[in-house]
Amino acid sequence: MTTCIMEDVRMIIEVSDVVKKYNNLDVLKGVTLSIREGEIFGLLGPNGAGKSTLMNTILGLLRFNSGSVKILGKDFSKHATEIKRKIGYVPQEIAVFETLNAIDNVTYWGRLYGLRGNELAQMVKKALEFTGLWDRRKSKVSTFSGGMKRRLNIACAIVHKPRVLFMDEPTVGVDPQSRNHILESIRIMNKEGTTVIYTTHYMEEIEAICDRVAIMDFGQLIALGTIDELIADHIHEVCLRLEFTANAAESVKVIESFDGVLSFSVNEEILEIKLDKDDSRIPLILEQLIKQHFNIKYMAVEKPNLETVFLQLTGKKLRD
Ligand SMILES: Nc1ncnc2c1ncn2[C@@H]1O[C@H](COP(=O)(O)OP(=O)(O)O)[C@@H](O)[C@H]1O
Ligand SMILES: [Mg+2]
Q1: How far from 103 is each of 13, 123, 134, CA to CA, in Å?
Q2: Residue 308 falls within a domain, yes or no?
Q3: How confident is the model at residue 320 (pLDDT cuts 50, 70, 90)?
């Protein structure tokens, strides 16, 4: 039964061993990945990792040196017109006409996607409402804030209700309110059936919206899976930090008796314990300490996340 369901999942994008070089610099070093119909797929990596290059390669905007890319089961170069009408693209750099108003910008894109007449007008209205810009539809774009321009850029990319939407760092430089609006819109569009490919260097955004994530560094995919899978595969310890009112050094005797304690250190009244991944021991440790009258002032458990995974895999922080 399970096998059947797995086979039914359509791969909407298939990238196989793609290599892209600029002069002698390998910017994509043999990237392979598949994206399933209906998912929000995140591409996470620091600046310069190759996210935009990979996205532009999939979109047929950039030629590559070797490998293959299929989108909606087809080769872009041979079916460009057909594929273009089914995809939307929000580029990293905002691309809108500053001297036109919002409605004319979105209408321009709608026409390019083949919409006409009443259908065009309806779809433009829907896209502007969806991005929260309908009330400002007659305003010149040059009067818009950065966040509004970003949202307009998105309206232009979704006017034809694409089956697949590519978004390249769509929240860079926007205010928190626009950012939340953008993330919420992506969730809604996805629920309505759009597959989304989303690049960012913010792991919080990936955690908020993505079903699966590929982590990229120096032109390579270094991990791929759901967030839970990546944490399970790559993180093998949990850090518990306790601050005592006094006698931290003596608490070590209690800690030593527990299995699964990998290491610990005491600094003034702060005890830091590294445990193997089984964090069910944490309540037991606390119980013992309290029983033995240690007075705990603060405690914190460092929960593993994508940042920890990235650090584990590369030895550096995402935004160094
Ligand atoms: N047109 C270009 N010519 C030469 N090098 C480029 C060009 N575009 C991108 N690069 C290089 O390719 C690498 C990946 O860039 P990019 O895909 O933009 O990364 P990201 O989107 O992850 O920030 C970087 O080292 C960048 O300097
Ligand atoms: Mg980029």
Answers
A1: 32, 11, 8
A2: no
A3: low
